[in-house]
Amino acid sequence: MAVITYREALRQALEEEMHRDKNVILLGEEVAQYNGAYKVSKGLLDEFGEERVIDTPITEEGFTGVAIGAAMAGMRPVVEWMTFNFSIQAMDQVFNNAAKMLYMSGGQFNIPIVFRGPNGPAEYLASQHSQALASIYAHFPGLKVVAPATPYDAKGLLKSAIRDDNPVVFMEAELIYAWEGDVPEEEYLIEIGKADLKKEGDDVSIITFGKPLQIVTEAADVLEKKGIHADILDLRSLRPLDEEAILKTVKKTNRAVIVDESWPVAGMASHIGWIISHKAFDFLDAPVELVTSEDVPMPYNHTLELAAQPSVDKIVQAVQKVMYIREA
Amino acid sequence: MADKLLMIALSPTMEKGTIHTWHVKEGDAFSTGDILCDVETDKTTMEYESPEDAILLKILVNEGGQASVGDPIAIFGEEGEDISPLLDEIKKEKSSKPDTNREEKEKEPASEKKTDPDIEEESPESQKTTQPEATTRIKASPLARKIAEERGLNLSQIRGSGPQNRIVKRDVENYKPQEKSAITHAPSSENSDQRIPLSEKRQIIAKRLSESKYSAPHFYLRVQVDMTRLMEARKRYHETHPDAKTSLNAWLIKLSSEALKKHPEVNSGWDTDALIRFGNVHIGLAVAQEDGLITPVVKSVEYKKIAQVDHELQGLIEKAKNNKLSPEEYTGATFTISNLGAWGIEEFTAIINPPGSAILALGAIEKKPVVINDEIIIRPMMSMTLSCDHRVIDGATGADFMKTLKAYIDDPALALT
Amino acid sequence: MTSDKTKKQETAKKTPDLKHMLGQMLLIRRFEERAAQAYGLRKIGGFLHLYIGQEAVAVGSIAHLDLKRDYVYTAYRDHGHAIACGMDIKGLMAELYGKESGCSRGKGGSMHFFDKEKHFMGGNGIVGAHIPLAAGTAMKIKFNKENGVVLCFFGDGAIHQGSFHETLNLAKIWNLPVVFICENNQYGMGTDFRRVSSVDDFSIMGQSYGIPGKQVNGMDVQEVHREVGEAVYRAKEEGTPTLLEIKTYRYKGHSMSDPAKYRTKEELEEYKNQDPILILKDHLLKEKKLTEDEFQKMDKKIKDQVKAAADFAEKSPEPSLELLYEDVLV
Q: pTM of the predicted model, to two decimals?
C-alpha cells in the first residue's frame, strides 16, 4: 500500500492502461504540453508522444465528436474536459451520438470511450463554473456514469472505465484531486455499478457519491458523538446504480438521508428516494430526506456559496429528522 | 370512419335510458340536429338529437331496450363500411366490465380507497356508523404499521411520538398493552379516562345495527341449497393440496363474490341522493366475540383465490377474537355473511351491515330428504336467507342474485363460467 | 494544387465504370420510388428523406472507395450512400419497414442505416453532428497508418453548425484524411440556402482553415467522380482534408410531409432536364456503349430487385419485444 493523491491515482490508471493498450489515447484542452489543467496527465506526453496525448483547441463539441468517431472505428479515447461545465458544449455529441450509436445501429457500433474531468462546485467560481451535472448524465440510457471519491476508487474505476466497451462518463472534482488515500502497488480493478459501504452503523443510512463523501464522513463523526451510528453508502456508480446495496442498507436501518451536491429538482437524489419508497416502503420508519444544493445558481460570495451547498450541519439535521430527534 | 352512438344523459340524474322509439332505420342518412330516437329517462321521455351527419349502420339497442349513459346504442358511419371491428370492440368492452354507471369508482385491485376512512366520509351513511377513531386516519410509518401487524397490536391503542403524532418504530417497540380490565357486572364506576374496548364495541354494535334496521327497509329471501358438490369440491382440493385447510366460509365468501360480480346492483350502497355501485367486492363475516360481534372484512375478494381468502380470514378471525382488529379491518364491507351453522341454527334473518345493502344469513348444514327426479334422496342441505335494503335492491334483483348463488353452490364449476 | 497524374492513377480509381454507375443511380432511384410508395401505404412511418435527383453525388464519390480501408459518413438522407456502398437493399427496405431483418434491426429506420462490415458509418440524424465523427475515424486511419480516407457527406443546412467549423479546424491542424462533401441541394428543409448564408459559394468556407475547396456540378456523375478523385488522392497521399461543395437538387420535398411549395415548377423542370441518370444514359447511347434495349433490360432487372426487397421487408416478422432492451450497452 502507498498513500497517494487522487490526482496521482488517476494518472497511474491512465499510464497503466496506455501501456496495456496502444489504442488508448488521451485528448483534451491542455492535456499534453501543459501536463493537464489539474496535472492529472503529468508526464504522459513525454512518455507516450503527441500521437497519443493530444492537445486540442477549445472546441468541446468538435474534439468530443472527433473522439467518438475514433472510438466508433476501434480506438479507445479518453476525453478530458477541463471542467464538466464546458461539457455542456459537448452534450449533443455525448447524448445524440455516443449514447445512442449502438442502439440506432442495431448493435453494430459500440463506443468505447471515457469522458472525464472535474464536476461540481469548487470555491469562488460562481454560477458558470460550479455546476454538478451528475443527474443530467445519469438520465441517458446508453451511458455509464461513475463518480469516485477516493484515490483507491478513482484508480480502480478509471481502469475499468477505459476497458469498458461502452461510453463512460467519469466525474471527478477539483477539490478532490489533492485528497490522499491508500492505493495498492499491484494492479486491481473495481467493477462499475458496485456501491461501497464506507462506514457501518445501524441507525441511519446516509447515501452519497463523489465529493460530498467528505462532509458525510464528517457528519457521521458528529453523529457518533451524539450516539447515532450511520451506515455510509458511497454509490461510486450512478449508472448502473447498485440498487441492491441501497435497499440492503435501508432495510437494515429503516431511515435514509441522501446527499447529492446537484440541484434538488429531477435529480439523482430524488430518483434514489423513489427507489427506496418503491422497493423498501415497508421498511421505512420515516420519509426519506434529501440534502442537495439549494435550488439556485451558484453565487460568488463565499458565505453564500457555502450556504448553497450541502454541509455537515445540514446532514446532521436531516439525520435527526429521520430519527425523530427534536433538538432543543 | 364508423363510430359508436352513445347513450347520453338526457336528464341531470339519468343513469339509464330506455329507447322508446327509433326515428331512423338502419341504412337511413341523418344530419346534425335530426331526432334519432326518443328515450325514456328517469323523469320523462326525451328526444335524442343527432350530433353528426352520417348513415345509421346498425342499431344496437332496440325499442324497449335499456342502456346506461355512455353505452353504445347504435353505430353510424359511411355507407357500406365494415363495422365488424367496432362490434368486436363493443363485445370486448361488455364482457370486460359489469354494467357501469356514473357512481362506479375505478377498479383497482386491492384498492385502499374503500377502506380509507378519509374517503369513506363521502357517504353520510358510513360517517354515522364508523367508529370515531376510524374517521381520523392513524398516522404511522410504514415500518411501524408492519411491526404492529406482525405483533398483532392495534395502532389505535398506541401513542405516536413523531411529527403530527405519527407512530414510529420506537413507539410500537416500547408499547406495553394494558392489562385487560376484567369485565365487571357491577355498575361501572365510570373511570372516564380508561377506555374499555369491549363496552365501546357494544355501543357501536348497538348504534350501527339499530340505525341499519330503522333506516333500511329490510326484506328477506330464503332458499335451500344442496351442499353436496361444494363439499366434494372442498374435499378434493384438500386431497390434492395436503397442506391446505380451507374453511367452508372461505368457499362461500368466494362464491358470493362471483355472484356479486354478476349482479353488481347487489354490491351497492345507499347514499341520500344516489346509489353507490361499489368498485370492489369487500365481504365481511360476522364473528362472535366474548361480548358482542364484529365483522372482519376480506378486501377485494374478486381478485383473490380461495386459499388466499381463507388465509386472510383466519388471520382476521384470530385478531377479532383477541380484539386486535384495526378499524380498516372491520369496516367497509360491501356485502356481509353471517353463519350461525355452528350453533345448530337452522335458519335466521340477519340485520344489514352498512355500507352494504345485503347480508346473507347461513344456517346449519343438515341432512334432509329432498326430491330429485321424483325420487326422495338424502342430501346435505343449508338454508340461506338474504336480507336486502329495499331502497337499493328490488325483489327481483335480490332473487336473481340468490338464484345465481344457489346455482354456484349447487355446482361450483358454474362460477368459473 | 499540382498533382502528379501518374501517381494519382494508382490511388484514385482510374477510368470510371460508367455503366456500373448508371446501374447504381438507377437502383437508388427505383429504391426511393418504391420507398415513397410504401410510405404512402403507411408501411413506413416517421421521416423519409428521399435522394431522388441527387444520385450522382453518392455514386460518383463512393466509386473511388475501397471500403475495406475507407469509410463513409452521411446525414439522414442516407439511402443513396448506403446503396452506393453496396449494402443489401433487402436489409435497407426491411429497415424502413422497421423489421428485425433490417440493417439496424429495425431500431434505426430511414435516418439510421448502418453497416459495420461495409464501413457505412450511418445515417445520422442531428444536423452537422456527425461531421466530427468522420474526422475522428480519419484520426484512427492516420493513427494506424491505414492509408484510407473518410468521405463525410452533409447538406447545405449543416454548414452553419459549429460542429462543421470546429471539425474543419481540427482536421487541418491534425492533418486528417477526410473529404467534407457538402451536398448543396439548395434547400435546408424549406429554406433557400441563399437566405441563410453569408456567402453563396460554400467551397470558399474551407479557406478560413487553409483547406482547399471546390464547387462541383452534382448533376454530372462524371464530374463528381473526377473532382472527388482529386480529393481522395489528396487525403491518401498527403493526408490532408478537402471541402467540396457539390451542387445538386432534390426533386422531392425535404421529407414525405413536405409538399415543397417553396420552389417554382420551372426550377424543378429545369433540373429534371439535367437529370443525372438521363445525362449519363444519353452519353452512353451517343458513345455507343449502351443501347436503349440494354437500358430497358437493366431497368427491368433493377425494378425486380427492388420489388423483391419490398416483398422481403413485407414478409419479415415484427421484432420481438425483447429487442427493446437489447443494444443499450455492450
A: 0.64
